[in-house]
Amino acid sequence: MKQNVYFVSGIDTDAGKSYATGFLAREWNNSGKKTITQKFIQTGNVGHSEDIDLHRRIMGIPFTQEDKKGLTMPEIFSYPASPHLAARLDNRPIDFDKIKRSTQELSERYDYVLLEGAGGLMVPLTTELLTIDYIAQEQYPLIFVTSGKLGSINHTLLSLEAIQRRGITLDTVLYNLYPTVEDKTIQNDTMEFIRTYLKKNFPGTKFLLVPEISEI
Fold first, then answer.
1. Does 117 belong to an annotated binding site?
2. In the CATH scheme, what is the code of domain 5-210?
């Protein structure tokens, strides 16, 4: 596999990963880098991934041939829960080989692949495999999504320690400004705190803002 797959995770289920993934894919495509997104495990859906739908709306493109073939959504489970539970309730295991083959094919067809996870870094994929361990196992560089909601500093710093401990390459931190909040006191302070923390402790990591997007 080419070294062009970036895993997208975040502080929790409501960090805005899908929103941020679609935004970054749009920006990379606009800059001439042919980019596709993949939702490696989707829960709470049947037959189609709602997160891929959101990606395409933000990217401003129709469904791709890869979407129609299921390459961008290789594993879908019906119950809206963490993958280990959703797989158990659907009475079938997650097919990690199928996921890997799909990612490999996207990697060969595109300049970049943004591989969105399910929930936060510590979400269990099986009873023995966490999302963060899957990232480390596959040696994917990480794009990490956080936000300015109350509690984000705590969740972000705990996540950064776990990332560092496992030797994962933290490529970019995306700071999500969506959804809009009227009082931006916490949002602005959190942004500066995390930005400063990264400069000191992760000097090679990029810090980018994900703006509010009105057209979705």
1. yes
2. 3.40.50.300
pTM of the complete model beyond 0.90 = yes
- The residue count of the chain comes to 216
The verdict on whether residue 76 carries a ligand-binding annotation is: no
| CA-only gyration radius of the chain, Å | 16
CA distance 54 to 128: 30
Active-site entry in 33, 39, 184, 200: 39
User: Is 211 assigned to a binding site?
Assistant: yes
Burial letters 97-131, b for 16+ CB under 10 A, else e: eebeebbebbbeebebbbbbbbbbbebbbeeeebb
Whether 149 sits among the annotated catalytic residues: the reply is no
Partners of 132 in the beta sheet?
A: none
Q: pLDDT tens digit string along 194-213?
A: 999 999 999 999 999 999 87
Domain chopping of the chain, boundaries: 5-210
